[in-house]
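thought: fold this chain, then report.
action: predict
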Amino acid sequence: MFKQILSRLPKRVPKSDPSDTSQSDTENSTSFGNIFQCTNVGTAISSKLNVVKRVSSVVFPASTGACVEAIDPHLSFKDVSNAQKQNLFINKLSFCCSVYDMSYPDRNCSELDLKRQTLVDLVDFVSSGSAKFTEPAISAMCKMCASNLFRVFPPKFRSSSTGGETADEEPIFDPAWSHLQVVYDLLLQFINYDSLDVKLAKMYIDHAFILRLLDLFDSEDPRERDSLKAILHRIYGKFLAHRFFIRKSVSNIIYRFVFETERHNGIAELLEIFGSIISGFALPLKEEHRTFLWRALIPLHKPKSVGIYHQQLTYCVVQFMDKDPKLASPVMKGLLKYWPVSNSPKELMFLSELEEVLEMTSMVEFQKIMVPLFRRIGGCLNSSHYQVAERTHLLWNNEHILNLITHNRQVILPLIFSALVHNTQNHWNQAVLNQTKNIRKMLSQMDEDLVLACQHNLEEEDLKLSAEAERRRKVWERLEAAVNVESVVDDILVPVKSAASACSVSVAC
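observation:
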């Protein structure tokens, strides 16, 4: 009964919260107001510049940035206002992130031409100095470069196991170089830009970016390696915080090349960069730099492919010696450690480097290493390979080296005199014979008494060797005679034993 009475009463309608109502009205009015405001701005811009075209969000994803106005990247910078050039610059960078397979250029001919033209426009815009590298622009630039440049190289099918181009091999050119070249030019101009905020750019050109850049030095296209060389050198010069990391990363590449693979196409370019870096080292040299010399540069003489980068390697070694002349004797010890035994072309390179090192060697450092050094030079003087012998004789034409030899002739001349005499008596090449005679004449004029003493010692040594050889010959004759006697006795005893065994068998029967 009570429930029926309550059910007949009118139901109470709940009052709406005024704060909720005002909040919803405010949100609606704000959202519509923003839309209306953006629409008015867009209408005003469209009325002033009819050439500006809106594009869909498919071309420019949300990663481009909400503050960047989407403008058709195919437009020229001349067709937009100065206020819109920066947005167009970022949009063009985003458009160039698309990567195509250049192995079949006919498939995407129109897209490739459009992309290349866009890249050229970007290079012209940056070179004109009109670009402003804000954080969105730096981010878009690094993203575009990473999309186009960072890639995995196909397996190497070269017949040579040494890596890199040799004298018998033609360089391999990348079919995508027409696009890559423009990207490299744009990246170089970006790094060289005067108003670039280094602290801001360092957030995007970070260690990961540099490592991927260093990986590209293994490219088989020499044009790409040259572009990388210029870019890495500028990064090293401009980003001071990355210098230690770059040196360490390059050292790791060299370690892996020397001690593991012996295959890398960019060792020469990396050494060219380090040649200029070494020249800027402060004195006294840090232990890190000395370690790089001992553990990286000196072992680089070991691989068979040293001829590809030997010129750059020699320059780096000489730069170290120019910084600290006391490094001469350790450097020559390293050369002697990796001196080639049966590779004559490599030996010629070592002799050439040795001459450059000796030109910068002081008398004190030379005396520390002259004994093992001229033992090796004595072996090169009477080398059966005439080019090695000729190149070694030419060391005496260097005034500084001749001065070092003259002041230390009491030690050096006995070490090489036997090689000179051996050349005079036995060498097959007439040019080497003439050079040997000239050196012997020069030494006689330098110190005739020392030459006569060396000649006398050599004759006595030859007599001792002859006597020793005669003694060994007689010992061998006695041994052979004893062996012959034993063989004759065996020939006599064997028939007697066989006859005795036959008699014993017959008696038993």
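thought: worth noting. Residues 59-153+175-205 form one domain.
final: tokens above.
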